[in-house]
Amino acid sequence: MPISEEIIVRSELRWAAISVGVVSVIMIALIYAGLVHHINPPSNIERIDPKTLHLGGEFTEANLGTRVSGDGQVTSRIVATQFTFQPRCVVLPANRRVTLRFATPDVIHGILVSGTNVNTMIVPGYVSQVHTVFTRTGDLLMPCHEYCGLGHSEMSATVRVVPPDEFKPDAEGRVACDAR
Amino acid sequence: MNDPDRLEQPWRLWASVAILSVFAFSVLFGFVLMPVMQGRAAGIDAFEAICRALGITPGSPAARQPTTNAKAQPATRVAWSADLLNSLTKATAAGESLAGSCAGCHGRDGRAVEVKLYPDLAGQSAAAIYKQLHDFKTGSRPSALMTPMVQALTEEQMVAVSAHFAAFPVRPIPAAQLPAAGAAIEGLVARGDSGRGMPACNACHGDQSGGPTEAPRLSRQSREYLAAQLRAFKTGERRNDIYSRMRSVAAPLTESEIDGLALFYASTRTY
Ligand SMILES: [Cu+2]
Q1: Best of A10, A20, A49, A84 to disrupt the B interface by mutation (most B CBs within 10 Å)?
Q2: Which helix (H) or strand (E) holds A74?
Q3: Alpha helices in chain B (DSSP H)
Q4: For residue B3, what pLDDT is reported?
Q5: Global pTM?
Q6: Measured between CA atoms, how close is A42 to chain B, in angstroms?
Q7: Which residues from chain A sit within 8 angstroms of residue B61, using beta carbons?
């Protein structure tokens, strides 16, 4: 028995409404994240050679971690590599503008800091930079959220946010997790 | 019935209106509303925010970053380039003649004359051999026997001898079977341990693992050598792995796991 045209049209409309609904929910979630959680696109492009990252300059092992420069600017430099972060834990002060800078020598990674607006891709050849202010203290989880290989699921680090009076840089301006 | 001035399907009109309004909303929202509202939080005025969203003005310029005054001490001085990786795939006559001086310990065919003392090189990845030679030479991996051996080697000679040994077949499994390593160890190899944040060994070690270029093949290397290297990574005595890739895995291993893993790899051909 042939199905009447009316039934076909009604079924089409129903499914069209469902797809429009799904797309709308996703768009609303994106807009909400952008406005309420301050998730922004990157605002600048900065290149770096992934092959020689470890050989000198900003992302050598000795220069990684949190550092306060002379003008009081707090910067944390972190390398994402298969399948770990270097360092695996960084200390940052609460209620103060901080800058996170990431680079990778191997493949595409990504990070987010749970419960905050820090969320960026880390692409070989580029420096990913995020400015933020942490308002909650405690150990925040920073997992890799971009599949980077078989060990991806174990790739995570800790961002230790401490009250400003417990944030004590040493003579060189450095603050490390195990030094506390 | 077919009036040429009338649209055949009236909904076409509404569909077009709907699509155009979605488009107009996206433009308005993406290029005006969103940038202005987000820019306010970052202290950027409305006009500047719209220009940035349209790509007319660039974003915050990259500020020069202060680097450490301490001298950079890289874990290794090896930098992988496409040319280098290419040259490592070609075995040459130069490699063969250089390999003569290694035969006393690593064997003519890359199978160590005494496995308790020297590692096998046969079937090892050329990139892994080259990386270690380079590190012995620059002092990134100090070794009483190897450091003097490689001092005289040039870059090209290190490439040649690496390609030479990599081309030999791996030593066959000995007739006398080693005891099985057990399920816990096989779990570490295949799945790692998420409780301790340890990736599986075969995420990096293995021909098709997709892990770091320089990760060596482990199977059929001697138990003694594997265990010694794992202990050296764990204690930090060996620290030539780029960005602690291997040290961070070895640090949480227990002594019995190290022995178990060494046994596992010494008695398998799979990885
Ligand atoms: Cu990753």
Answers
A1: A84
A2: strand A74-81
A3: 11-28, 34-41, 46-54, 82-87, 93-99, 103-106, 126-138, 146-150, 155-166, 183-190, 223-235, 247-250, 255-266
A4: 58
A5: 0.83
A6: 8
A7: 44
A–B: how many Cβ contacts below 8 A?
122
B2 confidence band (pLDDT: 50, 70, 90): low
Report how far residue B264's alpha carbon sits from residue A127's, in angstroms, rounded to the nearest whole number: 40
Are the beta carbons of A61 and B244 separated by less than 8 Å? Answer: yes
* Per-residue pLDDT at B174: 64
**CA A109 – ligand 1 centroid, Å:** 4
Res A26: pLDDT: 95
User: pLDDT grade, residue B5 (50/70/90)?
Assistant: low
Average model confidence (pLDDT) across chain A: 89
CATH code of the domain covering residue B151: 1.10.760.10
What size, in residues, is chain A? 180
- Interchain contact A75–B (C-beta under 8 A): yes
Instruction: Please write the tens of the pLDDT for every residue from A44-99.
Output: 788 888 888 888 788 988 889 999 988 888 999 999 999 899 999 999 999 999 99
Contact B243 A58 (CB under 8 A): no
Nearest to residue B226, comparing CAs of B182, B254, B261?
Answer: B261
CATH of A61-179, one of 3.30.1380.10, 2.60.40.420, 2.102.10.10, 2.60.40.1120: 2.60.40.420
B216 and chain A in contact, CB less than 8 A: no
Residue A150 has its nearest CB partner, among B61, B209, B242, at: B209
Single out the residue in B136, B166, B196 at which a domain terminates.
Answer: B166
pLDDT at residue B179 in the model: 76
| Averaged pLDDT of chain B | 84
- CB neighbours of B66 closer than 8 A, spacing ≥ 6? A69
Within a domain: residue B7? no
Question: How far apart are the CA of B186 and the centre of ligand 1, in A?
Answer: 23
CA of residue A156 to ligand 1 center, whole Å: 8
What does the alpha-carbon distance between residue B64 and residue B70 come to, in Å, rounded to a whole number?
18
Do residue A61 and residue B243 have CB atoms under 8 angstroms apart? Answer: yes
